[in-house]
Amino acid sequence: MEIREKHWLWILAAGVVLAGALGYWGYQQFTVRQRLETALNNKYYRALYDLTENVQNMEVLLSKSLVAGTPEAQSTFLMELWQRAMAAQANLNQLPVTDALTGRTSKFLTQVGDYAHSLMQQAVRGELESGQQWETIKRLYQQSADLNLALHELQSRIASGQLYLSELARESRRTLGCEGPRLANTSFQAIEKHMENFPTLIYDGPFSDHLGKRVARGVTGKNISREKARARALEVTGDRGRYVVERVEESRGKIPSYLVELRPLRKDGVPVTVAITRQGGHLNWMASGRRIGNATWNMEKARQKARDYLASLGYRDMVPVYYEKQNGLAVFNFAATQEQVVLYPDQIKVSVTLDNGQIMGIEASSYLMNHSRRELPRPRIGLQEARQKLNPRLKEIKGGRLVLIPVPPDREKLAYEFQARLDRDLFLVYIDALDGREVQILRVVRNPEGILTL
Fold first, then answer.
1. Across 367-423, where does the E strand assignment appear?
2. pLDDT tens digits for 115-139?
3. What letter would DSSP give residue 164?
């Protein structure tokens, strides 16, 4: 009897061990599967984000090709449009959806790319004069704008957890008629329905971060000590009596600097970090943070506060060029001027709170990298002649000031800057002041947060 009990105990123990082993194996398999599924989901999300970015760039390039007035500019935009359309097609093919769900969108992207390539060849030959071609590009632009909006809405719903992109692969193997409020399939079906009418056949300004030059031309003077960096950091805050220096460290990079951490003496104060260049003791950047209350300052008052602050630091010939407003904070971009020419590469950003006008930050890297006295050429064409170079379809043409803009890879051009409108879209067009060629076209986007350019 005792032997039989021992026998059953051995069987029970073996069963427990076996069950534990199977459980552990199952857990391991579950974990591996979860990791693989997470990796696959990340791949799908990346493809969707890339698709959205490429379609947004397609919309911008189509609008710019409508504004371009020279074959050279049109050819440049059309070449990039062709590349973006092909990239968007590749992104779409990576998504786990059936051809039935994305067939029209895929066809639209393919035809945009093919049409852009065809027009690019015509532009090179100087044959891009047809009004019908212009109308086709205009329809493509409107359709790409709709697709861009739909993709952004889809991306937003996935980011907020309203849709699960991970279920697309599983659901795509089933019938296309299955409904599900949390499935992205329904959104793709809506996009496809909207794409049935396709034609048959862009917070910073783009000139604000021109940091390609390896030598910081705006950094001058002799190297300073840590003690001088401490004194300079207290000076730029404009409030020596409210801070003490907590520590000083060194930072390398394109502009080697001392990082000075300031501790407030008052309990309601906030810490401030200031970067002072080791050469010359220039203010590189300053940053602080606090909870911002309700806005009581308007943008013009805040802009003037930023301008006055720059003047107190010795920057007197600066003009505002772009701004952005977020969470009670206004960020203004100011560009230097020389002989009434706006130097777009030489920019400084200033952050101002809209509750009491406090200077919360400054970023002068672009200015320090690029600023120097230029030998500006004399314009070879006049303002009126430059204006005549604009596309005749543009309306409400304004401006015409002289500006210096960066041109890749590492050059600068003197140009006339015009603001003009095509239908509902606003553009900045830059005409070379020496030869009259279009050197840049930017689309202006105005929203409650500020003025952006693409």
1. 395-407, 411-422
2. 777 777 676 666 666 677 778 888 8
3. B
